[in-house]
Specification:
- The chain is mainly α.
- It has one domain (22-163).
- It has four helices and two strands.
- It has helices at residues 23-68, 74-115, 118-127, 137-163, and strands at 6-8, 11-12.
- The longest helix is centred in the N-terminal third of the chain and has 46 residues, at 23-68.
- The radius of gyration is 23 Å and the shape is rod-shaped.
Length: 165
């Protein structure tokens, strides 16, 4: 029997359960693999959705400011910019939380792949190639950068009349 290993806090590594490589066990592993891959894809879509809606709310804040607060006081501008800042912080936190969950599922996928014998790994990799998205830190950085750049643009649009007058 395999040894009990920890791959992440409060979660027992899937490798512990793998000892015999029979067909029933292989089907279970493929199901867990597919579940983890689907979860990763769902979380990646959620990251893009969060970024999209944050940018959409930035645009709404600017539109409300332009239409209803043409002669806004400094307190109103600070309030709108504070809402934008909170929105940016929450969006970045959610992106990082989803990234952590994706890393946990990638560990599960790696452990499943390593549990197969060498001859089954090749067939497993051919059958499921492309099912598990790889880790791309550039995407996470791009999403967070777009939130921060959006926040800077909102700040500039809210305060540009005060700066240039």
């Amino acid at each position: 029997m395999g040894t009990k290993q920890k791959c992440c806090p409060r979660r027992t590594c899937i490798k512990r359960r793998i000892s015999v490589s029979d067909s029933r066990n292989d089907n279970f592993l493929v199901a867990v693999f597919n579940n983890s891959a689907d979860h990763i894809q769902f979380l990646k879509k959620q990251q893009w959705t969060i970024t999209y809606y944050c940018l959409l709310l930035y645009a709404a804040i600017v539109a409300v400011f332009k239409t209803h607060f043409t002669n806004a006081s400094c307190i109103e501008r600070v309030a709108l910019f504070s809402i934008s800042t909170v929105l940016c912080v929450i969006g970045c936190i959610l992106i990082f939380v989803f990234e952590k969950s994706m890393k946990d599922h990638r560990i599960i996928i790696e452990n499943i792949y390593e549990s197969f014998p060498e001859e089954k790994r090749i067939a497993f990799a051919k059958t499921l190639s492309g099912s598990a998205p790889t880790d791309v830190p550039l995407i996470r950085s791009t999403l967070i950068a777009s939130l921060i750049i959006g926040l800077v643009i909102v700040g500039w649009l809210l305060y540009r009349n005060l700066i240039y007058t």
